[in-house]
Design brief:
Elements: E1 2-8, H1 11-19, E2 24-32, H2 41-45, E3 52-59, H3 66-75, E4 84-85, E5 88-89, E6 95-99, H4 102-117, E7 128-131, E8 135-137, H5 145-149
Parallel strand pairs: 6-7
Antiparallel strand pairs: 1-3, 1-6, 2-3, 2-8, 4-5
Helix pairs in contact: 3-4
């Protein structure tokens, strides 16, 4: 099993979509990239902790590759929006890939370069590629949010144009 950590706006929709992919063992909403230990949702939303809402994915690389997860990541949000996604604005909603290894870093940077060269987006890709340091699971009421509500995400979906 391997880990991948992605920030692409509100973690509810990201978790919901990633959880449905064959080969994904677990997808957990949480926080990463901040300055404080054990951040709360209120601290993250207020922008006081420096954390990003992320989803940590445990996956079986024999069933789904990291490159496939990267492709899904870029299709489920707008990677050109700076510090936000749709109606969610703030650094805590920024587009970021927290890489767990040099291979993940290389794969993420290559895909960004390929997408840029192919002009897949009208604006420059704003997705940051940063080293993973620590993951803090979000409060239980954030986990499997859409699954528990029986609804679909309102701001995340898989686009076909990339």
């Amino acid at each position: 099993m391997e880990l991948a950590t992605f920030g692409a706006g509100c973690f509810w929709g990201v978790e919901h979509i990633l959880r449905q992919q064959a080969g994904v063992i677990e997808a957990i909403s949480g926080y990463s990239g901040g300055r404080t230990a054990n951040p709360t949702y209120e601290e993250v939303c207020a922008g006081r902790s420096g954390h990003v809402e992320v989803v940590q994915v445990t996956f079986d690389p024999a069933k789904i590759s990291y490159d496939q997860l990267l492709s899904i990541f870029f299709r489920l949000h707008n990677p050109t929006q700076v510090n936000g996604q749709g109606p969610d604005v703030g650094e805590q909603y920024r587009s970021v890939i927290f890489y767990q290894s040099e291979a993940q870093k290389t794969a993420a940077e290559k895909l960004i370069a390929d997408l840029t060269a192919a002009k897949k987006f009208k604006r420059p890709i704003a997705t940051a590629v940063e080293p993973f340091a620590k993951f803090w699971p979000a409060e239980e009421y954030h986990q499997k949010y859409y699954q528990r509500k029986g609804t679909e995400p309102y701001c995340h979906f898989l686009r076909d144009d990339y």
